[in-house]
Amino acid sequence: MVDGRRRYGNGQLLPAGPLRELPERGSQCDFRVINGGEAGFGEWPMRLLADRAVPVRGGRPRPLDSFAGHRVHAVAGIGNPDRFFTMLRGLGIAVVPHAFADHHRYRAADFEFGSPLPVLMTEKDAVKCAEFATDAFHSVPVQAELPEGFWVSLLDRLQALDQNRGHESD
Q: Could you list the residue ranges forming a coiled coil in this record (predicted)?
C-alpha cells in the first residue's frame, strides 16, 4: 500500500518519515495498491469511499452528506489526517480540523474545542473514544474501492499459490 499523493515522502521509516517499510520492499510484492492519487504502471488504484456517519454511542447511522453545509469538528489521529479532512470537505462539509499524532491515546480533554459542533472522526479514533463519547461523536467508516481487475488478479494469484502448495506435498 502506497500513499498516492505523498508516495515515499522523505524515504525514511517511522518515526523519522512516513514509511513502515523501505521502498525497495515494493519490488518483492505481488501487488502495489495506490491509495489516492494516480497509479502508475504495475500499480492498482484504490479510493476510500464514505457515505455515512455512525453515532459512537450507538444509534441509527445518518448519511454523511447530511452534514454538508454545516461546520463540524473533524478528528483524525492517523498517518495522514489531511486525507480524512479533504474527503469531508469534498462532501461539502465545513471542517474544523483537529489532527492528532498517529495512534494518539485520546482523553475527554482532547475534545474541549469551545464550540458544540458535531464531531466526525475515523473509525480507528472512535474506538478509542467510546468510554467518554457524547451524542455529538460520530465515526465515519470507509470502504476501499479497487478495480475489478485487481480482484481477478488477486484470485488468480491465490489459486496459483494454492496449486503450488498442493504440488509441494506430493
A: none
